[in-house]
Amino acid sequence: MRRPLIAGNWKMNGTAAEAEALLTAVASAEAGRAELVVCPPFTSIGQAAHHLSGTCVQWGAQNVYPAPSGAYTGEISPRMLKVLGCRWCICGHSERRQLFGETDDFVSRKVRALLDEDITPILCVGETAEERRDGRTAEVVQREVEAGLGAADAAEAAQMVIAYEPVWAIGAGQAATAAEAEEVAAWIRECVFRRFGAAASEGVRILYGGSVGSGNIASFLAEPDIDGALIGGASLRAEEFISIYNTANA
Ligand code: 13P
């Protein structure tokens, strides 16, 4: 049985003072059957470790550079995340692919580098509105999944998390329908099966992301191939975020 996972991606939000308030509030979540993760900006990961240690809430990062150390001005290594207690890291978010030119190959190197530090990658995949209109959703998602997992083995794939985030639903206020999300989640699981076999495809957790809130989370969790959600805007409101988590616990 796959454990439900609710992860919050704060994106570039939260000054130190704002993060302090949000982390303090999220720390009050009560443990349940689902896992709860927040991914603040790098500048607040230390604060997350401080406020969330000893609670049921875990923390992670939104990005990483795939090298152990060195002359990479402005970048953060997997080891730096590890020593701050990060057990999770988002990779290949569509905003990074679109705004910062991240390629499938670069994303795959990040996945490998994180696995080497025992940090679980949350690999984001998803099609644009135009790709969906052109009937290319399955092809795009397959390419991103296969490339992202390209440097992992079956046992690692089984432990990973893949977030299906249709680009057109991110920050749109209009989520995909549960049926649309399930169709692609099932395809992602099939792609993992074809490449790595049954144990990996049954173990890998697939999240839906894109305009998820307390009002629609239950519909996604009711789908057989959706194991949780990656939450943007709603993760910045503690009460709403905890309410989403409590639905996953129910
Ligand atoms: P929203 O929940 O704000 O649509 O963002 C989704 C997302 O991109 C999470 O990574």
Ligand kinds: 1,3-dihydroxyacetonephosphate
Number of strands: 8
**Largest sheet properties:** 8 strands, parallel, barrel
CATH class of the domain at 61-234: Alpha Beta
Large-scale geometry: globular
What would the CATH topology of the domain at 61-234 be?
A: TIM Barrel
Overall mean pLDDT stands at 98
Q: Span between N and C termini?
A: 15 Å
Residue share in β-strands: 15-25%
Features:
250 residues, alpha/beta, TIM Barrel, 8-stranded parallel beta barrel, 12 helices, 8 strands, 15% strand, binds 1,3-dihydroxyacetonephosphate
Give an account of the 3D structure.
It contains twelve helices and eight strands. The protein has 250 residues and is an alpha/beta fold. The chain has a domain at 61-234: Alpha-Beta Barrel (TIM Barrel). α1 links the parallel β1 and β2. The mean pLDDT is 98. Bound molecules: 1,3-dihydroxyacetonephosphate. Residues 9, 93, 165, 170-171, 209-212, 230-234 line the site of 1,3-dihydroxyacetonephosphate.
